[in-house]
Each structure stands twice: as structure tokens, then as C-alpha cells.
From TrEMBL, chain A:
Protein name: Alkaline shock response membrane anchor protein AmaP
Superkingdom, taxonomy of origin: Bacteria
Keywords: Membrane, Transmembrane, Transmembrane helix
Transmembrane spans: 21-47, 67-92
Length: 188, 205
């Protein structure tokens, strides 16, 4: 069913990348409010002479402040920083820490945190280390497992590695694995 | 899984970034130039800009009953109005694509639609009864002009993922048999949100 496959590919591509809707909505809302305020101010300017006088005073104060080099440079620096942030949001891919694949009937999407929890539990079970002393970091290509053993109890890194592989294979993923066993154990 | 146009999100962010960058560079330049005697090479471009600006500012049209109005002002007001409308349309078109119906069949006798709550009962309900699952829900969206289901399952930390996935596949098989037609389904094993961190890590049965 190529149609279903195309749907799955589209959905998985979208779900593994940030939509950028929140920053775009924030920018659009701020822009709309500023523009509406400007238009309302313009109409008010035309209608009310008192407002015209107070607005002119305010503008004089603002332009006097802007004429100071330090103020202009500070405002410019802030604007450039904001601009760089927005351009980065617009251009960077924005991958989310999720893993995706098309299983036979469904598309499967798993958050990295879920896999990390499962891997940590499996490693703790397999190596006999305490669950609280196993930490798992999911990179895009590598899974890193750090184990702090109980002092005097050996931890087998190969067992930890096979636990990682088995857990990933349960949901059909695979990844390079790095196991770091701390050389100093703790007294438990 | 909504149908928000993400290219538009990025285009808006890019344009806003370019505008802010230009404004920031102008402010920086003004600040630096005001500090001391401007360098020689800036005199010619600055003179041209001032000339063009003053000649544009003199360009006016007569509006009946008001008198001469600057064309620049009219263009600015028109642009502001247009931009405001475009931004409001942009804000109104985010987050669309949810649907209530997971299946529509147009038959001879009329139209049959299957509601999202049926998917919730058949797909999500058996999963949320499992002890290693915190929550499960089914949502329906229109993807490529046809309904698709997102089955989002929030699992307990350290739950056996293979068993949860197998249970989900069993629920999907039941759903397929009930429906008699294939609807695309996305199975999403989701992280706990901040609200789930208040729940206990394990459940005693």
C-alpha cells in the first residue's frame, strides 16, 4: 500500500522535527499587536489634538535618548541578538529526540526518554547494578550507559551492552553502544 | 500530527529575523557613527540616502478634503494594514487538521462515518488498563486528505517496550477486524509530560 507508506513517511518526518509553531505564533502575535497599536495610534493622532501634543513630547524624549550613542548601540545589539535567534529557528532542522520507523502495520514513533528508561532498567537487571546508579544518554547515533558499581562487585560491560541491544531490538531499533563503568564504586 | 504549514512558520521567523537584523545593524551603525567623526567613505552613501529620503518625503498626493498627504505615509499605512491582516490569518490557521471521523465511507444508501471515540475505546482503552501504561489516547487527524490515527501511549519508566508494542499491535489487529478497512495508525510511545511526574513511578497491583 504505497499510499499508506507515503502517509507514514510524511507523518514520521513531521513528528521527528520541531514544528516551530510556538515561536512563529509568538512573533506573529507581537507583530500584530505592534501594528494594530501603531494604526490605532495613527487614527488617534488624526482625531485628538491633546494626544498629538503628548505623543510629540514622548517622541522628542525617545529621539533624544536614541541620539545617545550608547543607547543606540545597546538597542542595536539586542536587536541583532534577537534576529540571530529567529534566523537560527528558521534555518536549523530542529530534530526532536525521537526514533521512528515504519513497522509492518503501523508507523512507530518512540521518544528517546522512553527508550532510555527501558534501557536503564534492563541494564540494571542484567548487571545487578542498582537502578539509581545506571544513567543512559541517548545520542542520535550512540547510546551511552554509565554505571557506578557497588564497591567490590564486578560489573560486566558486555552484559550491559547486550542488554542495550536487546532492549532496542524489542522496538526494532539499533544503535552503537558505549558502556562506561566507573572505576570507583560506591559503598552501598 | 496536525496540518500546520511548517514552511510558513519558518518563512515568518526568517522574515522577522531579517527585519530585526536590518534594524539592529542600522541602530548599531547610528550609535557608532554618532560617537565620533564619521569616516570619509560613509559621507557619499549617507548623502545619497538623505537626498533620496528628502525627495521621497516631498512626494505628495492631494486627497480630497484633506489636502496634500505624503505618499510614503500612505504606503506605510497600507503595508501596516495588509501585514496585520496577513498576521491574523497566519495566527488563525495554526494547528488545524484534527478531525472527529476516523473513517468515512460513501455508499449507495448514504454516508457512514466512524467517530474518533470508537478508536479511543477500541485502541486506547485496552492499553490504558495495562499496569505498565500511564495513559493512552487515540487522536484523529487528516493527513494527505485521508484520516489517520495517532495512538499515543505514555508508558511507566522502565516498562517492557516490546510487551507494550505487542499489546498495541494486538489492539490494532482487533481494530482492523472491527473496521474491515485499513486506516493509517501511528503508534507513539511517549515520554511523560510534566504532569505525569507527579504520579508514582510504579503501580502495585
Amino acid at each position: 500500500m504505497t499510499n499508506e507508506q507515503a502517509t507514514y513517511r510524511r507523518v514520521l518526518r513531521r513528528e521527528t522535527h520541531s514544528p516551530r509553531t510556538a515561536p512563529a505564533v509568538a512573533v506573529a502575535a507581537v507583530g500584530a499587536v505592534v501594528l494594530l497599536a501603531g494604526l490605532a495610534g495613527g487614527v488617534w493622532w488624526l482625531v485628538d489634538p491633546a494626544f498629538r501634543a503628548s505623543a510629540a513630547r514622548w517622541f522628542d524624549g525617545a529621539s533624544a535618548l536614541a541620539a545617545q550613542p550608547a543607547a543606540a548601540i545597546a538597542v542595536g545589539a539586542v536587536l541583532v541578538l534577537l534576529a540571530v535567534l529567529l534566523l537560527a529557528l528558521a534555518v536549523l532542522p530542529g530534530r526532536r529526540s525521537r526514533r521512528a520507523r515504519i513497522a509492518d502495520r503501523t508507523a512507530l514513533l518512540v521518544d528517546d526518554g522512553v527508550i532510555a528508561d527501558a534501557v536503564a532498567a534492563a541494564v540494571a537487571r542484567r548487571t545487578g547494578a542498582e537502578r539509581g546508579r545506571v544513567s543512559v544518554t541517548m545520542g542520535r547515533r550512540t547510546v551511552t550507559v554509565r554505571i557506578v558499581p557497588t564497591s567490590g562487585v564486578a560489573v560486566d560491560p558486555a552484559a550491559a551492552e547486550s542488554a542495550v541491544h536487546d532492549t532496542l531490538a524489542e522496538v526494532g531499533f539499533s544503535s552503537a553502544t558505549r558502556v562506561v563503568v566507573s572505576t570507583e564504586g560506591v559503598v552501598a | 500530527m496536525n496540518a500546520t504549514n511548517r514552511v510558513m512558520n519558518r518563512v515568518l521567523l526568517f522574515l522577522a529575523g531579517v527585519v530585526l537584523l536590518a534594524a539592529g545593524i542600522v541602530a548599531l551603525a547610528a550609535g557608532i557613527l554618532a560617537g565620533g567623526d564619521p569616516p570619509v567613505w560613509t559621507r557619499e552613501p549617507l548623502r545619497v540616502i538623505t537626498d533620496v529620503w528628502s525627495s521621497l518625503a516631498r512626494w505628495t498626493v492631494d486627497v480630497a478634503g484633506v489636502g496634500p498627504v505624503s505618499v510614503l505615509l500612505l504606503i506605510a499605512v497600507g503595508t501596516a494594514l495588509l501585514l496585520t491582516v496577513l498576521l491574523l490569518v497566519f495566527l488563525g490557521t495554526r494547528g488545524r487538521g484534527r478531525t472527529r471521523e476516523v473513517l468515512e465511507v460513501d455508499g449507495v444508501g448514504g454516508r457512514t462515518a466512524v467517530d474518533r471515540s470508537v478508536a479511543d475505546a477500541v485502541l486506547a482503552e485496552p492499553l490504558s488498563r495495562r499496569p505498565d501504561v500511564l495513559a493512552a489516547r487515540a487522536g484523529a487527524y487528516r493527513v494527505r486528505r485521508a484520516p489517520a490515527i495517532e495512538l499515543a501511549v505514555t508508558v511507566r519508566p522502565g516498562a517492557p517496550l516490546g510487551a507494550v508494542a505487542a499489546a498495541a499491535q494486538a489492539a490494532v489487529r482487533e481494530w482492523d477486524q472491527l473496521l474491515g478497512s485499513r486506516v493509517p495508525i501511528l503508534l507513539h510511545l511517549a515520554d511523560r509530560g510534566w504532569r505525569d511526574s507527579f504520579r508514582t513511578a510504579t503501580r502495585v497491583e
